Amino acid sequence: MPTRLPYLLLASLAIGCQPAPDAPTELGDLTLFFFSEFETADDAYYGDALLNLEAGVLSTVDLAGERADRKWIQPTLYEEHWGGAAGPAEIDPDVQVPITVAGLSTWPVSTHAMATLQPDQAPLEPSAPEHDRTYPNDTTCWSEETCTRLDTDNVVKKANILYDITYETEKDYRRLTLSDGRQAMVARTWNDSVALGDEGVNSIDQNYATEVFIESPTDSGQTQRMMAIWTSTTLPASNPSDELVRGTISVGIDGLFRRHDEFHAEQAGN
């Protein structure tokens, strides 16, 4: 399991006195950047990338419109992009099936941040009938909004039309304030190893994801969302096409976005 070091310390070691490079602007580069630089980029650099994502991608589509208009295929994530995370090095990254989906939440970033503290995450995940979360560090400062980093360890039972598999995964979050004062949050998820199904046949071989939450520029009570997933599976019986896998995952991401808003409404008594 990789060591989780404070990202500002790592940033200072990596950047030193050299001038900071420009943040990436293209969607594919941005998805890789959010994953690989999660630990090392300081808030200004990371925030610039989030603003570039908003200007170049999120603002150009109807985030509440048809899924086909707000999903994309991003580049492959290689070991060089792990950035302190880890994965099964024996699995060929070129067999990944990447997919990115964006959406709009009617709840603020702060509400999404507090939902990360639910030990039982199953009510927030329509494709995970079981999702138990623990916290390696004290979470008081996160709940009081006096710190910007939250690490979590998760045991997830994922069930969909393709497989039924339980696996362990790490998911870490960082919050930041953008240069214009708006709030944002980014999450990063990865599986250290191959996850086998109950029968020992089906498996999730690779699983990496990054998730973005940006306060809407027109309504502080809304959040622009994006999730990028890189996954590969072994499913001998069904042997689904990449397009079926990609379609299933994109439907799942959209369902996740929708379920999060439903959960927040339930918690608020609406």
How much is the average pLDDT?
91
Determine and state the CATH class: Alpha Beta
Unreliable runs, pLDDT <50, ≥5 residues? Answer: 1-18
Secondary structural class: alpha+beta
Our count of helices gives 6
* Total individual domains: 1
Alpha-carbon Rg, integer? 18 Å
Biggest beta sheet attributes: 9 strands, antiparallel
* CATH homologous superfamily descriptor: START domain
Write the layout of secondary structure elements.
Blueprint: H1 7-15, H2 27-36, H3 43-56, E1 71-72, E2 97-105, H4 109-115, E3 130-134, H5 140-143, E4 149-159, E5 164-177, E6 183-190, E7 195-196, E8 203-215, E9 223-234, H6 242-267
Antiparallel strand pairs: 1-2, 2-9, 3-4, 4-5, 5-6, 6-8, 7-8, 8-9
Helix pairs in contact: 2-3
General description of the model:
By secondary structure, the chain is α+β, with helices and mostly antiparallel strands. Helices cover 26% and strands 28% of the residues. It contains six helices and nine strands. It has helices spanning 7-15, 27-36, 43-56, 109-115, 140-143, 242-267; strands at residues 71-72, 97-105, 130-134, 149-159, 164-177, 183-190, 195-196, 203-215, 223-234. Strands 1, 2, 3, 4, 5, 6, 7, 8 and 9 form a nine-stranded antiparallel beta sheet that branches. A hairpin with a 4-residue loop joins β4 (149-159) and β5. α2 (27-36) packs antiparallel against α3. Residues 1-18 have low confidence and may be disordered.
